[in-house]
Write a structure and sequence with these properties.
Blueprint lengths: L2 H20 L14 E6 L5 H16 L3 E6 L4 H14 L3 E4 L8 H9 L4 E4 L11 E5 L1 H15 L11 E5 L7 H19 L3 E2 L7 H4 L6 H15 L8 E3 L3 H13 L12 E2 L6 H8 L5 E4 L2 H16 L21 E4 L2 E4 L3 H6 L6 H4 L2
Parallel strand pairs: 1-2, 1-3, 3-4, 4-5, 5-11, 6-7, 6-8, 8-9
Antiparallel strand pairs: 10-12
Helix pairs in contact: 2-11, 5-6, 8-9
The chain binds beta-D-glucopyranose.
């Protein structure tokens, strides 16, 4: 941003702050009736989980008497920066942000700080900025360990030997999303002993997170990469046994690529064992049908509820307890974090973990 723009923005932010102060710390043009206006920004509306997340936070805050301005950023960074700028201008009392690129919002976060607006990084850590107050998420490294557990169990790695190694290919999430680091690290740490013993092999040799990453978690891009991996490395009798997948739509699209070359319909070529993440409806159906092997359920209702409580505590000036103050360094500071637990879902526990808990209904899954 050039100097003139910076000065104009600062003047604008100061005017907004002054406006709120003179209005008695209350509303902005009638928009923040009740306990105050809270800004919530989610990365996209095109993925099931973020709609659920956004709605859970909005509904929870509204029940407590807050007014919520909920924005979805269409996975477009300029849209997200503009939305945050607008929310600051509107005088929100707290900002809840699930970023697209965790490192792309430094100016917005500095503006929020200047306007004394506390910032909560929602699910994805906001990187390289001192102006992040809290992080609410799942234990991302543990989610990664669970992704590894899924392959260890599904591929029966305990029983496998180097005489007949198990063959897998690896996919990671978006390189600009810090969660991808935890997921991949956890999964690979868990699988390491099997690589070391030579019972697990990646024929493509593509192992580096930068190489196996999927920008914006784009399932179509992952499908293309899977198609290329299959045509380049699996031409003879070599059969792919498993896929490390960080996200349900990637699990489903890579399975599609495998089906297109005969997996699941040719003797000796069963569908590979594939995990995933987010417990999306299509994957639950696939798990029930015996195709995708498993997923990791990160209950967006719990994340939403934890965020609502945090916002309310901040607004009431309460001391926040139970925070992890060690694990999440964003490159600029350690961000105090609230980390929730996730659950592996396979066909065995799908009913108890997903239906009985009300995460999805039987009707949604066609059961
Ligand atoms: C979230 C995942 C999600 C992915 C793609 C990650 O930051 O933690 O739950 O699958 O983004 O939206």
């Amino acid at each position: 941003m050039n100097l003139v723009k910076k000065v104009l923005l600062t003047v604008l932010v100061l005017a907004v702050v002054a406006g709120t102060v003179f209005a008695g710390g209350g509303s902005q043009g009638g928009k923040s009736a009740g306990k105050g206006l809270i800004g919530v920004v989610m990365p996209t509306r095109s993925e099931e989980r973020w709609i659920k997340d956004g709605n859970a936070v909005k509904e929870g805050l509204e029940k407590l008497g807050y007014t919520v301005d909920l924005q979805f950023s269409d996975d477009d960074i300029p849209t997200q920066t503009r939305q945050i700028d607008d929310l600051i201008t509107k005088g929100v009392k707290v900002l809840v942000i699930a970023s697209i690129d965790g490192s792309a919002l430094s100016n917005q976060l500095a503006n929020a700080k200047a306007a004394k607006i506390p910032v909560i990084a929602y699910d994805r850590l906001l990187m390289r900025s001192p102006n992040v107050d809290y992080y609410v998420s799942f234990d991302n490294y543990k989610v990664g360990l669970q992704m590894g557990d899924i392959l260890i169990k599904g591929l029966k790695l305990e029983q496998a030997t180097s005489a007949k190694p198990v063959i897998i290919e690896l996919f990671a999430g978006s390189p600009d999303d810090n969660n991808s680091v935890g997921f991949y690290q956890g999964a690979m740490d868990n699988l390491k002993p099997y690589f070391d013993k030579g019972v697990l092999k990646v024929p493509s040799g593509q192992i580096d997170r930068a190489v196996v990453g999927t920008l914006r978690w784009d399932a179509a891009e992952a499908q293309k990469r899977m198609e290329n991996l299959l045509s380049a490395n699996y031409t003879g009798s070599l059969v792919l046994d498993g896929i490390l997948s960080p996200y349900d739509p990637i699990s489903l699209s890579t399975l599609e690529a495998c089906k297109a070359v005969g997996y699941g319909s040719t003797p000796g070529k069963p569908l590979p064992i594939v995990g995933g993440q987010d417990c999306v409806v299509a994957s639950c159906k696939s798990i029930w049908a015996g195709e995708q092997y498993a997923t990791v359920l990160k209950d967006t209702r719990s994340l939403g509820a934890a965020t609502v409580t945090l916002v309310d505590d901040i607004m009431q000036g309460k001391t926040i307890s139970g925070l992890d103050t060690k694990s999440y360094n964003n490159g600029s500071k350690v961000v105090p974090s609230l980390l929730l637990d996730s659950v592996i879902v396979t066909k065995e526990n799908l009913i108890s973990a997903v239906i009985d808990t009300g995460y999805h209904t039987r009707a949604e899954l066609g059961l």
